[in-house]
TrEMBL record:
It comes from Sporosarcina pasteurii (Bacillus pasteurii). This is 2-oxopent-4-enoate hydratase. SUPFAM superfamilies: FAH. The lineage of its organism: Bacteria, Bacillati, Bacillota, Bacilli, Bacillales. InterPro entries: Fumarylacetoacetase-like_C, Fumarylacetoacetase_C_sf, Hydratase-Decarb/MhpD_sf. Its EC number is 4.2.1.80.
């Protein structure tokens, strides 16, 4: 695919994000035969556009890392995208529906990386050795596509539906935990809507970060010291509504919350 066409598709997706409106999936009209590899080319153009606007990358993220999420979205492999600085919401802060299209929330464990991690061949154990700390997080995904309806190449192009992130403020060393056994609940207005454990994420959340390092290596990239990385959802994603008080509680890792206005 020509770089100019990839850029055109990236502009189409960013317009949907900026104008807070759904767009028709890329594979419906613009490029029906879009491949996953081409989806990543579009994503690369989208990331370049944001960097050119002065946005900063907080870290890459993994998505669709659990069987539950893959089934929910009818796709069959994990993907990555990028979290930018303008997407961060402080713990206890507000997420405004008027800034977004049709946001959903999911509970995740985030890794703060202490040393560069360069694939291929990276394992979860190597990731843990290079992880400075872990944080609880709530990710707000907001696919730019109508009704969250997309194929795998579409969602890759759309920066893996990345939209907002609330990181917890309790910073813990990964050695204090068996992260696969960490349980989490996702509550809205005091009612548990979803629950899960770290093992939902490819058996162990560190495995998702290892997979990310190995995927990035295919484009000559790596995980960098200082990256803060979402490892994928422990829970299913729940649609947000105005007035929702959202809370993620993670065993030993703490609580993250926000309100929807
Ligand atoms: O963070 C993620 O799991 C990305 C999900 C992309 C698919 C979706 O929009 O549900
Ligand atoms: Mg996610």
């Amino acid at each position: 695919m020509e770089a100019t066409f990839a850029k055109e598709i990236a502009q189409y997706l960013v317009a949907g994000e900026v104008e807070k409106r759904e767009v028709t999936k890329v594979t419906a009209e613009l490029k029906p035969d879009l491949t996953v590899e081409e989806g990543y080319l579009v994503q690369q153009e989208l990331v370049a556009m944001k960097l050119a606007e002065g946005r900063k990358i907080v870290g890459p993220k993994m998505g669709l890392t659990s069987q539950a999420k893959m089934q929910q979205m009818d796709v069959d492999e994990p993907i990555y995208g990028y979290v930018f600085d303008y997407m961060l919401i402080e713990n206890g802060g507000k997420v405004s529906l008027s800034d977004l299209i049709h946001p959903k929330v999911e509970a995740e464990i985030a890794f703060v990386i202490g040393e560069d991690i360069e694939g291929p061949g990276i394992t979860g154990a190597q990731v843990l050795a290079k992880t400075e700390s872990v944080l609880p997080a709530l990710e707000i995904i907001d696919s730019r596509y109508e009704n969250f309806n997309f194929t795998l190449p579409d969602v890759v192009a759309d920066n893996a539906s990345t939209s907002r992130v609330v990181f917890g403020t309790t910073i813990k060393s990964p050695e204090q935990f068996e992260l696969d056994l960490v349980g989490a609940t996702l509550s809205i207005n005091g009612e548990i809507k979803e629950l899960g454990a770290g093992a939902a994420v490819l058996g162990h959340p560190a495995n998702a970060i290892a997979m990310l390092a190995n995927m990035l290596a295919k484009k000559g990239d790596k995980i960098r010291k200082g990256d803060v990385i979402l490892s994928g959802a422990l829970t299913g994603a729940v649609l947000l509504e105005e007035g929702d008080v959202v809370s993620g509680k993670f065993d030993g890792l703490g609580e993250v919350s926000f309100i929807v206005t």
